[in-house]
Design a protein that fits this description.
With 275 residues, the protein is an all-alpha fold. The protein has helices at residues 2-21, 25-35, 38-47, 53-62, 67-88, 91-98, 101-105, 111-139, 149-177, 181-194, 206-212, 216-229, 238-269.
Length: 275
Amino acid sequence: MTGTLKTIYAIGKKEVTEMIRYRDWIISLIIWPLIFPLMYILSALGLSGPDKSGLKEFTEITGISDYIGFIVIGAMVYMIVNLTMWNFGTFLRMEQQRGTLESLWICPIKRFNILLGGGVFNMLLSLLYVAVSMIEYSLIYNINFTGNIFQWVILFLVLIPGILGFGAAFASLVLWLKEANVAVMFARGLVMIFCGLSFPIVVMPQWMQYISKIFPFTFGINAAREVMLNNRSLFDVREDILWCLISGFIYFLIGRILFYFVEKKVKTEGSLERF
């Protein structure tokens, strides 16, 4: 356990040092949360019709009257997934391109802990993005978030196993296939379509609803909307939280298994340095 924590700390420290040295990410931190949900908000406003009758139907289906709040909560979860794909999911591939992965690989540590270090850093960065997003949405989009900080943090923590598992599986596949961009576009496209980021999943065909329940983010988004917009308690959304955790741990297990096989494959083939 001590070795694991030391590895995670060392990798996290390296990532923080790079982040402080190259500060262009601050621009995206401020602008991205505002721009991303805007196209969905304008689309919802346009599709609601001149008399806004579409918004009444939306409220009847979702039980939520604040359609902007509904969209921005989905946008926040999507940003976490997007950060996971680009940062955590491509972590090993970036180290490979920099020529530092082999040095990390021969260290007397568990290789999966190297990936976990990148994952923990990604979680902290995601938390920063969520905090800034909530401030901007409250001030600029005039969203009145219900609940309290304790509940919001719990909802974020519930998503972590799924995010780490999804990212670990993705990072392993990227290291094997050695192609990040196409894989990122495909993975986040699946999340955007099936997890109901900007629409309720009940409007999808039944077979698509079944697929949406494979992703832990679907349950996390629904729980977050109920707590942060309808002022529900964590106990009220306990079923969504439970399924989010169960599916999240399954994803984490899948990610660990995939990493084991990819690690074994690159060791057998000696392909760690290949591009």
